Amino acid sequence: MKALARHIATTARCDLTVLVTGESGTGKELVARAIHQLSSRAALPFISINCGALSETLLESELFGYERGAFTGANQKQKGLFQAAHTGTIFLDEIGEMSPACQVKLLRVLQEGAVRPVGGHTKISVDVRVIAATNRNLSKEIGEGNFREDLYYRIAVLTVDTPALRKRSSDISLLVEYFLRQAEEKMKCPEHHMIEDDGLKTLSVYSWPGNVRQLRHVIERLVATTFESELITTEAIFRALPASVLSEMATQLPIIFREDDSLDDFLDRMLLRAYEQLRKQTGSHSKAAQLLRTDRVSLYQRIERARQRVRDES
Questions:
Q1: Using CA atoms, how far apart are residues 117 and 100, in angstroms rounded to an integer?
Q2: Do residues 122 and 225 both lie within one domain?
Q3: Are 250 and 277 in contact (CB under 8 A)?
Q4: What pLDDT digit, counting tens, does each position of 175-221 carry?
Q5: How far apart, in Å, are the Cα atoms of 285 and each of 75, 241, 278, 288?
Q6: Calpha distance 121→281 (Å, rounded)
Q7: Do 142 and 224 lie in a common domain?
Q8: pLDDT of 261 higher than 90
Q9: pLDDT tens digit string along 19-39?
Q10: What are phi and psi of 11, to 5 degrees?
Q11: H helices of 126-227, where?
Q12: Between β-strands 89-93 and 46-50, what pairing exists: parallel, antiparallel or unpaired?
Protein backbone atom coordinates (compact mmCIF):
# COMPACT_ATOMS: atom_id res chain seq x y z
CA MET A 1 0.00 0.00 0.00
CA LYS A 2 2.96 2.32 0.62
CA ALA A 3 4.13 1.62 -2.93
CA LEU A 4 0.61 2.34 -4.23
CA ALA A 5 0.50 5.60 -2.26
CA ARG A 6 3.79 6.72 -3.82
CA HIS A 7 2.50 5.82 -7.28
CA ILE A 8 -0.70 7.81 -6.65
CA ALA A 9 1.31 10.84 -5.55
CA THR A 10 3.49 10.67 -8.67
CA THR A 11 0.46 10.22 -10.93
CA ALA A 12 -1.33 13.17 -9.31
CA ARG A 13 1.46 15.56 -10.26
CA CYS A 14 1.10 14.78 -13.98
CA ASP A 15 -2.03 16.37 -15.42
CA LEU A 16 -2.73 13.48 -17.81
CA THR A 17 -5.53 10.96 -18.25
CA VAL A 18 -5.36 7.95 -15.92
CA LEU A 19 -6.73 4.41 -16.09
CA VAL A 20 -7.25 2.72 -12.71
CA THR A 21 -7.52 -1.07 -12.93
CA GLY A 22 -8.35 -3.76 -10.40
CA GLU A 23 -10.99 -6.20 -9.22
CA SER A 24 -14.37 -5.03 -7.99
CA GLY A 25 -14.17 -3.70 -4.45
CA THR A 26 -10.45 -2.84 -4.43
CA GLY A 27 -11.08 0.89 -3.98
CA LYS A 28 -10.64 2.27 -7.49
CA GLU A 29 -12.79 5.33 -6.79
CA LEU A 30 -10.81 6.02 -3.61
CA VAL A 31 -7.65 5.97 -5.72
CA ALA A 32 -9.24 8.35 -8.23
CA ARG A 33 -10.26 10.75 -5.44
CA ALA A 34 -6.77 10.59 -3.94
CA ILE A 35 -5.24 11.47 -7.32
CA HIS A 36 -7.59 14.43 -7.60
CA GLN A 37 -6.96 15.61 -4.05
CA LEU A 38 -3.19 15.52 -4.53
CA SER A 39 -3.32 17.26 -7.91
CA SER A 40 -3.28 20.94 -8.87
CA ARG A 41 -7.06 20.63 -9.41
CA ALA A 42 -7.77 19.61 -5.79
CA ALA A 43 -9.89 22.69 -4.98
CA LEU A 44 -11.94 22.24 -8.17
CA PRO A 45 -14.85 19.86 -8.92
CA PHE A 46 -14.56 16.07 -8.77
CA ILE A 47 -17.45 14.49 -10.67
CA SER A 48 -18.05 10.73 -10.66
CA ILE A 49 -20.28 8.56 -12.84
CA ASN A 50 -20.70 4.80 -13.20
CA CYS A 51 -20.79 4.11 -16.93
CA GLY A 52 -22.22 0.64 -16.42
CA ALA A 53 -25.25 1.85 -14.48
CA LEU A 54 -26.89 3.82 -17.31
CA SER A 55 -28.27 3.00 -20.74
CA GLU A 56 -26.41 4.29 -23.80
CA THR A 57 -28.74 7.23 -24.45
CA LEU A 58 -28.97 8.25 -20.80
CA LEU A 59 -25.18 8.03 -20.35
CA GLU A 60 -24.65 10.23 -23.39
CA SER A 61 -27.02 12.94 -22.14
CA GLU A 62 -25.52 12.74 -18.62
CA LEU A 63 -21.97 13.13 -19.88
CA PHE A 64 -22.44 15.70 -22.60
CA GLY A 65 -25.70 17.43 -21.69
CA TYR A 66 -28.60 18.16 -24.01
CA GLU A 67 -30.55 20.96 -25.64
CA ARG A 68 -34.18 21.67 -25.04
CA GLY A 69 -36.33 19.47 -27.28
CA ALA A 70 -33.47 17.04 -28.00
CA PHE A 71 -35.72 14.15 -27.01
CA THR A 72 -39.06 13.52 -25.37
CA GLY A 73 -38.99 14.97 -21.88
CA ALA A 74 -36.12 17.38 -22.58
CA ASN A 75 -38.11 20.44 -21.52
CA GLN A 76 -35.10 22.59 -20.83
CA LYS A 77 -31.41 22.81 -21.63
CA GLN A 78 -29.19 20.71 -19.33
CA LYS A 79 -25.44 20.87 -18.80
CA GLY A 80 -23.56 17.56 -18.86
CA LEU A 81 -21.07 16.24 -16.35
CA PHE A 82 -18.10 17.27 -18.47
CA GLN A 83 -19.25 20.87 -18.20
CA ALA A 84 -19.93 20.44 -14.48
CA ALA A 85 -16.37 19.14 -14.05
CA HIS A 86 -14.82 22.04 -16.02
CA THR A 87 -11.33 22.86 -14.63
CA GLY A 88 -11.62 19.82 -12.33
CA THR A 89 -11.68 16.03 -12.68
CA ILE A 90 -14.24 13.60 -14.04
CA PHE A 91 -14.13 9.96 -12.93
CA LEU A 92 -15.57 7.46 -15.42
CA ASP A 93 -16.08 4.28 -13.40
CA GLU A 94 -16.54 0.94 -15.22
CA ILE A 95 -15.58 2.47 -18.55
CA GLY A 96 -15.35 -1.04 -20.00
CA GLU A 97 -19.16 -1.17 -19.89
CA MET A 98 -19.52 1.83 -22.23
CA SER A 99 -21.23 1.15 -25.55
CA PRO A 100 -19.27 1.49 -28.81
CA ALA A 101 -21.29 4.58 -29.80
CA CYS A 102 -20.48 6.34 -26.51
CA GLN A 103 -16.85 5.32 -26.87
CA VAL A 104 -16.65 7.17 -30.18
CA LYS A 105 -18.15 10.34 -28.67
CA LEU A 106 -15.88 10.17 -25.63
CA LEU A 107 -12.84 9.77 -27.88
CA ARG A 108 -13.87 12.90 -29.78
CA VAL A 109 -14.16 14.85 -26.53
CA LEU A 110 -10.68 13.75 -25.44
CA GLN A 111 -9.21 14.65 -28.83
CA GLU A 112 -10.89 18.03 -29.19
CA GLY A 113 -11.25 19.16 -25.58
CA ALA A 114 -14.87 20.07 -26.30
CA VAL A 115 -18.35 18.55 -25.94
CA ARG A 116 -21.42 18.85 -28.12
CA PRO A 117 -24.69 18.45 -26.21
CA VAL A 118 -27.27 16.00 -27.50
CA GLY A 119 -29.43 17.85 -30.02
CA GLY A 120 -26.94 20.72 -30.19
CA HIS A 121 -24.77 22.04 -33.03
CA THR A 122 -22.24 24.10 -31.13
CA LYS A 123 -19.22 22.65 -29.36
CA ILE A 124 -18.40 23.80 -25.84
CA SER A 125 -14.76 23.81 -24.73
CA VAL A 126 -14.00 21.97 -21.48
CA ASP A 127 -10.82 21.68 -19.43
CA VAL A 128 -11.19 18.39 -17.58
CA ARG A 129 -8.81 15.75 -16.32
CA VAL A 130 -10.24 12.31 -17.04
CA ILE A 131 -9.68 9.37 -14.70
CA ALA A 132 -11.28 6.12 -15.85
CA ALA A 133 -11.56 2.78 -14.05
CA THR A 134 -12.41 -0.78 -14.99
CA ASN A 135 -12.37 -4.29 -13.56
CA ARG A 136 -12.24 -5.74 -17.06
CA ASN A 137 -9.18 -6.76 -19.05
CA LEU A 138 -9.36 -4.04 -21.71
CA SER A 139 -6.65 -5.65 -23.84
CA LYS A 140 -8.87 -8.72 -24.11
CA GLU A 141 -11.92 -6.52 -24.77
CA ILE A 142 -10.03 -4.81 -27.60
CA GLY A 143 -9.16 -8.18 -29.11
CA GLU A 144 -12.82 -9.22 -28.98
CA GLY A 145 -13.94 -5.95 -30.58
CA ASN A 146 -15.75 -4.62 -27.51
CA PHE A 147 -13.47 -1.69 -26.74
CA ARG A 148 -11.77 0.78 -29.07
CA GLU A 149 -7.98 0.55 -29.14
CA ASP A 150 -7.56 4.26 -29.90
CA LEU A 151 -9.72 5.16 -26.88
CA TYR A 152 -7.68 2.82 -24.68
CA TYR A 153 -4.46 4.64 -25.54
CA ARG A 154 -6.18 7.96 -24.84
CA ILE A 155 -7.33 7.00 -21.35
CA ALA A 156 -4.34 4.85 -20.34
CA VAL A 157 -1.62 7.48 -20.65
CA LEU A 158 -0.94 6.75 -16.98
CA THR A 159 -2.12 3.57 -15.24
CA VAL A 160 -2.63 2.61 -11.60
CA ASP A 161 -3.40 -0.97 -10.57
CA THR A 162 -5.22 -1.54 -7.27
CA PRO A 163 -4.15 -4.94 -5.91
CA ALA A 164 -6.64 -7.47 -4.58
CA LEU A 165 -6.82 -7.71 -0.79
CA ARG A 166 -5.71 -11.37 -0.82
CA LYS A 167 -2.40 -10.18 -2.33
CA ARG A 168 -1.72 -7.78 0.55
CA SER A 169 -2.90 -9.60 3.64
CA SER A 170 -0.38 -7.69 5.78
CA ASP A 171 -2.57 -4.60 5.28
CA ILE A 172 -5.65 -6.25 6.76
CA SER A 173 -4.94 -5.44 10.43
CA LEU A 174 -4.54 -1.73 9.60
CA LEU A 175 -7.69 -1.72 7.48
CA VAL A 176 -9.62 -3.51 10.23
CA GLU A 177 -8.58 -0.90 12.77
CA TYR A 178 -9.54 1.91 10.40
CA PHE A 179 -12.95 0.41 9.58
CA LEU A 180 -13.63 -0.29 13.27
CA ARG A 181 -13.14 3.36 14.17
CA GLN A 182 -15.23 4.47 11.17
CA ALA A 183 -18.08 2.13 12.09
CA GLU A 184 -17.99 3.18 15.76
CA GLU A 185 -18.24 6.83 14.79
CA LYS A 186 -21.01 6.14 12.30
CA MET A 187 -23.05 4.13 14.84
CA LYS A 188 -22.12 6.32 17.82
CA CYS A 189 -20.86 3.31 19.82
CA PRO A 190 -20.26 3.87 23.54
CA GLU A 191 -17.08 1.71 23.54
CA HIS A 192 -14.05 1.07 21.36
CA HIS A 193 -14.07 -2.44 19.91
CA MET A 194 -11.17 -4.88 19.94
CA ILE A 195 -10.83 -8.18 18.08
CA GLU A 196 -9.48 -11.41 19.56
CA ASP A 197 -6.06 -12.43 18.21
CA ASP A 198 -7.46 -15.63 16.67
CA GLY A 199 -10.21 -13.59 15.07
CA LEU A 200 -7.70 -11.23 13.48
CA LYS A 201 -5.76 -14.24 12.17
CA THR A 202 -8.98 -15.54 10.65
CA LEU A 203 -9.55 -12.24 8.87
CA SER A 204 -5.97 -12.38 7.56
CA VAL A 205 -6.36 -15.94 6.20
CA TYR A 206 -9.65 -15.33 4.35
CA SER A 207 -9.28 -14.62 0.60
CA TRP A 208 -11.79 -11.72 0.51
CA PRO A 209 -13.36 -12.17 -2.94
CA GLY A 210 -15.18 -8.86 -2.43
CA ASN A 211 -11.91 -7.16 -1.47
CA VAL A 212 -11.81 -4.02 0.68
CA ARG A 213 -15.51 -3.34 0.20
CA GLN A 214 -16.40 -6.76 1.64
CA LEU A 215 -14.01 -6.28 4.58
CA ARG A 216 -15.61 -2.92 5.42
CA HIS A 217 -19.11 -4.41 5.35
CA VAL A 218 -18.05 -7.34 7.57
CA ILE A 219 -16.52 -4.97 10.13
CA GLU A 220 -19.65 -2.80 10.11
CA ARG A 221 -21.78 -5.92 10.70
CA LEU A 222 -19.54 -7.01 13.57
CA VAL A 223 -19.73 -3.60 15.25
CA ALA A 224 -23.50 -3.54 14.83
CA THR A 225 -23.98 -7.02 16.31
CA THR A 226 -21.60 -6.39 19.24
CA PHE A 227 -22.71 -2.81 19.81
CA GLU A 228 -22.39 -2.72 23.60
CA SER A 229 -19.43 -5.09 23.91
CA GLU A 230 -15.78 -4.08 23.72
CA LEU A 231 -14.56 -7.48 22.48
CA ILE A 232 -15.37 -9.01 19.10
CA THR A 233 -14.90 -12.76 19.48
CA THR A 234 -13.58 -15.20 16.93
CA GLU A 235 -16.96 -16.95 16.97
CA ALA A 236 -18.69 -13.68 16.04
CA ILE A 237 -16.28 -13.28 13.13
CA PHE A 238 -17.08 -16.75 11.82
CA ARG A 239 -20.79 -15.98 11.99
CA ALA A 240 -20.16 -12.88 9.88
CA LEU A 241 -18.17 -14.70 7.21
CA PRO A 242 -19.18 -17.30 4.61
CA ALA A 243 -18.65 -20.88 5.75
CA SER A 244 -15.88 -21.26 3.17
CA VAL A 245 -13.54 -19.29 5.40
CA LEU A 246 -13.30 -22.31 7.71
CA SER A 247 -12.07 -24.50 4.90
CA GLU A 248 -9.58 -21.82 3.89
CA MET A 249 -8.26 -21.56 7.42
CA ALA A 250 -7.91 -25.31 7.72
CA THR A 251 -5.65 -25.34 4.67
CA GLN A 252 -3.39 -22.76 6.33
CA LEU A 253 -2.73 -24.86 9.45
CA PRO A 254 0.95 -25.71 10.00
CA ILE A 255 1.36 -29.50 9.92
CA ILE A 256 4.59 -30.99 11.27
CA PHE A 257 5.97 -33.90 9.26
CA ARG A 258 8.23 -36.34 11.07
CA GLU A 259 10.96 -38.37 9.40
CA ASP A 260 9.53 -41.71 10.57
CA ASP A 261 5.95 -40.85 9.59
CA SER A 262 3.88 -43.19 7.55
CA LEU A 263 1.16 -41.63 5.40
CA ASP A 264 -1.48 -42.72 7.96
CA ASP A 265 0.51 -41.14 10.82
CA PHE A 266 0.76 -37.85 9.01
CA LEU A 267 -2.90 -37.81 7.98
CA ASP A 268 -4.04 -38.65 11.52
CA ARG A 269 -2.19 -35.68 13.02
CA MET A 270 -3.31 -33.41 10.20
CA LEU A 271 -6.94 -34.45 10.77
CA LEU A 272 -6.72 -33.90 14.53
CA ARG A 273 -5.10 -30.50 14.19
CA ALA A 274 -7.59 -29.34 11.56
CA TYR A 275 -10.52 -30.67 13.58
CA GLU A 276 -9.40 -28.99 16.82
CA GLN A 277 -8.95 -25.68 15.01
CA LEU A 278 -12.34 -25.91 13.32
CA ARG A 279 -14.09 -26.94 16.55
CA LYS A 280 -12.46 -24.05 18.38
CA GLN A 281 -13.48 -21.56 15.72
CA THR A 282 -17.02 -22.82 15.18
CA GLY A 283 -17.65 -23.37 18.88
CA SER A 284 -19.08 -26.88 18.57
CA HIS A 285 -18.52 -30.39 17.29
CA SER A 286 -21.81 -30.23 15.38
CA LYS A 287 -20.81 -27.17 13.36
CA ALA A 288 -17.43 -28.71 12.57
CA ALA A 289 -19.20 -31.85 11.33
CA GLN A 290 -21.53 -29.75 9.21
CA LEU A 291 -18.59 -27.96 7.62
CA LEU A 292 -16.84 -31.27 6.91
CA ARG A 293 -20.05 -32.58 5.32
CA THR A 294 -20.51 -35.51 7.64
CA ASP A 295 -22.73 -36.40 10.60
CA ARG A 296 -21.71 -35.88 14.23
CA VAL A 297 -21.40 -39.59 15.10
CA SER A 298 -19.27 -40.50 12.07
CA LEU A 299 -16.95 -37.57 12.69
CA TYR A 300 -16.64 -38.44 16.40
CA GLN A 301 -15.75 -42.06 15.60
CA ARG A 302 -13.18 -41.02 13.03
CA ILE A 303 -11.57 -38.49 15.38
CA GLU A 304 -11.43 -41.04 18.21
CA ARG A 305 -9.73 -43.60 15.94
CA ALA A 306 -7.15 -40.98 14.94
CA ARG A 307 -6.58 -40.03 18.58
CA GLN A 308 -6.06 -43.67 19.56
CA ARG A 309 -3.53 -44.23 16.78
CA VAL A 310 -1.64 -41.04 17.72
CA ARG A 311 -1.57 -42.14 21.41
CA ASP A 312 -0.31 -45.59 20.41
CA GLU A 313 2.34 -43.98 18.23
CA SER A 314 3.62 -41.83 21.10
A1: 18
A2: no
A3: yes
A4: 999 999 999 999 988 878 999 887 888 888 788 999 999 999 999 99
A5: 67, 19, 9, 5
A6: 66
A7: no
A8: no
A9: 999 999 999 999 999 999 999
A10: -65, -40
A11: 138-143, 149-155, 172-187, 197-205, 211-225
A12: parallel
